[in-house]
Design a protein that fits this description.
The complex is a heterodimer of chains A (368) and B (280). Chain A has 13 helices and 4 strands. Chain A is α+β, with helices and mostly antiparallel strands and 368 residues long. In chain A, a hairpin with a 5-residue loop joins strand 3 and strand 4. In chain A, helix 4 packs across helix 5, helix 8 packs antiparallel against helix 10 and helix 9 packs across helix 10. Chain B is an alpha/beta fold. Chain B has 7 helices and 12 strands. The longest helix of chain B is centred in the N-terminal third of the chain and has 16 residues. The relative contact order of chain B is 0.16. The chains are: A alpha+beta (368), B alpha/beta (280).
């Protein structure tokens, strides 16, 4: 009966935990948390986004403990997050205040403020760089000095704050006018969602979603199960300042607000054409916006999120990606991996129960 | 573990879970949504039950954790260890000694008392999910007490197999109002829920629901007059170790003779019987 013998389970489990520790340590190499923080930006951004906790330090620690396994690292972060009391909600952050590091538009060639490529893999060839086997610190320093010392091309100086691309279309009346929705968002980590959900709940669950799951469903939506082809109006990567209300006096003005730091995010506004019925049976095409935002630089996920956000606004369409229960209930990393992995637990009582039913029905069939 | 609060959660979170629990007790069988937290053990591995336990536990509680009948199975060991590390309270394997019993898929053979609470871990809290995938719809079906779908499912089983063919988790009607998933306990344990002296709490972490059967509450397994509810047939089975009869048995195969034999599924019940024999 393997590991479910009457006694001895506890000892076996202790040994298994030791074995796991041994697997992590057996080559006698130590990776510093600082090294992970400096060298594994991509993984850290993914873990912070799925883990729903903005801390590069804790993400790096989780990656070390999880031996680089993203689902395990996300799990560690989420479990730690559960122990933290919610002390403050930030004041509303306006993404227009972003300190932009990268900003592109697929809709227009030239946009006010210009296209800013920043750092991204998009422009590289995915060829394994065998030179990285032998990188040394002296060469790196030399390269950095050269790179930071002399800008290779003239660059336009940006004033920092950049206008939004979609505002151009909005002033032209090509985007449906929408009033600001200032209803207080519902915190999905403090109150579980009920259906139908509000947009604030949907956006939170999408942004916490597992990168692969959000991407897969977003892909399904543009491939054939939803909207045909969105255009990325604007994709930004940069830093947003976070303020909270002055905690001691009961104040809620901008002047009294306390700056607590900045967070790096990826923000995407996709444009999706939509036919609107007008008077006398006339039809007009307008653009709708799909919104995606997540911690760190997670561009594919943010774009897929913007696609799904728009899909979920159109719940009348009969397709899985337009069904909020289908999308929102299945993209969470911790929930999906947890329930799949629970299949490894013993099920011998439940199986015995089913066996009893099967035997009884078999007997009945034979008697018939 | 000094970086964590007593019983893992911050006090605000515990209070919130207890509030949902009180509501659940006030409306027997009704699934109360709650803001389920991520736990240090995986979703689907008993996080609903664990959150209930951690929200309830005090310094003088004694905890027992069982997984499919045993105190030493993976899930039970994991959960017990976490509760111990974060609270330092006493643990026991004896059903009668525990004040809180967290269990995956079994109700112990020893009858529980009024001063005990049993916390059941629930993977799928919605008994109507097999007939209706949408949460939005099932919530309305419960509100309208519209249960024809689940009756029809049982009826169809009778048409196809000559009897109800449910395994564990056979649906029950609580307090003549809500149809409830008793969690995947074997049908054998369903009758133990009826007028139980102990408070029964059920927690589903991934699905974010808490529900309850208060003490002395009517719990009927769904069945028809001419096709009564049947528990698993344990009549011919005798425990090879302690000789017990009429309780839920594990079916095992002898490695040498390849013969089937049986053993009490509730290991602590079996051990207690063996120990009492030795005393005589």
């Amino acid at each position: 009966m393997g590991y479910v013998a009457v006694k001895g389970g506890t000892a076996a489990i202790e040994e298994s935990i030791k074995r796991l520790r041994y697997e992590r340590l057996k080559d006698e190499k130590v990776i510093e948390v600082e090294t992970i923080k400096s060298c594994m930006r991509g993984l850290i951004d993914q873990i912070m986004s799925e883990g729903s906790l903005y801390s590069r330090d804790l993400a790096a620690l989780a990656i070390k403990q999880a031996e680089g396994n993203p689902e395990e690292a996300t799990f560690l972060i989420r479990a730690y997050r559960s122990t933290l009391p919610r002390k403050h909600y930030s004041r509303t952050i306006d993404p227009e205040d972003m300190r932009v590091e990268r900003r592109i538009s697929a809709a227009f060639k030239d946009i006010p403020g210009g296209q800013i490529l920043g750092a991204d893999y998009d422009y590289t060839h995915r060829l394994l760089d065998f030179d990285l086997y032998n990188e040394n610190l002296a060469d790196i320093r030399e390269w950095i000095n050269k790179y930071t010392g002399t800008p290779a091309v003239d660059c336009r100086q940006s004033s920092g704050k950049l206008p939004k691309v979609i505002d151009l279309l909005r002033t032209e009346g090509l985007i449906a006018q929408a009033a600001n929705d200032d209803t207080e968002p519902q915190d999905v980590t403090r109150e579980s969602i009920r259906f139908p959900t509000t947009r604030s709940q949907r956006l939170q669950i999408l942004t916490r979603g597992e990168t692969g799951a959000v991407t897969a469903l977003g892909y399904a939506a543009i491939r054939g199960y939803g909207i045909l082809h969105p255009t990325v109006g604007e994709l930004r990567v940069g830093y947003l300042p976070v303020y909270i209300d002055y905690p001691i006096a009961n104040s809620n003005t901008d002047e009294d607000a306390v700056y607590i730091g900045e967070i790096q995010v990826t923000e995407v506004e996709s444009l999706i054409p939509e036919v609107k019925e007008k008077k006398m049976g006339r039809k007009e095409i307008e653009f709708c916006i799909g919104y995606g935002i997540c911690y760190g630089q997670n561009e594919t996920k943010a774009i897929a999120m913007s696609v799904l956000d728009n899909c979920l606004e159109k719940s009348h369409i009969n397709s899985p990606v337009h069904n909020e229960e289908f999308v929102l209930m299945h993209i969470d990393c911790v929930e999906a991996t947890g329930f799949i992995s629970h299949l490894k637990l013993p099920h011998y009582v439940t199986f015995q129960s089913k066996l009893d039913s099967v035997r009884k029905t078999k007997r009945w069939e034979e008697e018939e | 573990m000094s970086k964590y609060n007593f019983a893992f959660f911050d006090e605000g979170s515990k209070r919130e879970i207890r509030r949902a629990t009180l509501k659940a007790i006030a409306i027997p069988g009704y699934q109360v949504p709650f803001a389920s937290r991520e736990m240090p053990i995986a979703r689907g591995w008993g996080t609903g039950g664990l959150q209930l336990t951690l929200s309830l536990v005090g310094t003088d509680d004694v905890i027992k954790v069982i997984d499919q009948g045993t105190d030493e199975s993976v899930n039970a060991v994991n959960i017990k260890k976490l509760i111990k590390i974060t609270t330092g309270i006493k643990e026991t394997e004896k059903t009668a000694e525990a004040t809180i019993i967290q269990s995956r898929h079994r109700i112990p053979e020893t009858e529980l008392r009024e001063d005990q609470i049993i916390v059941l871990q629930v993977p799928l809290p919605e008994p109507l999910r097999i007939i209706e995938p949408s949460e939005y719809v099932t919530k309305r079906l419960h509100a309208d007490q519209e249960y024809s779908g689940i009756w029809l499912m049982l009826f169809e089983q009778i048409m196809q197999h000559g009897r109800m063919a449910t395994g564990a988790d056979h649906p029950v009607l609580v307090n003549d109002r809500y149809v409830m998933a008793p969690s995947p306990i074997p049908r054998f344990d369903n009758p133990k829920m009826h007028c139980s002296k102990a408070l029964i709490l059920l927690g589903a972490g991934r699905e974010k629901k808490i529900y309850a059967v208060p003490p002395y509450t009517k719990v009927q397994s769904l069945a028809f007059e001419d096709y009564p509810f049947e528990v698993e047939d344990m009549s011919a089975r005798v425990c090879r170790l302690c000789g017990a009869k009429g309780i839920f048995m594990d079916e095992l195969i002898d490695e040498e003779t390849q013969e089937k034999y049986y053993q009490c599924n509730d290991v602590s019940y079996c051990l207690e019987r063996l120990n009492n024999e030795n005393d005589d």
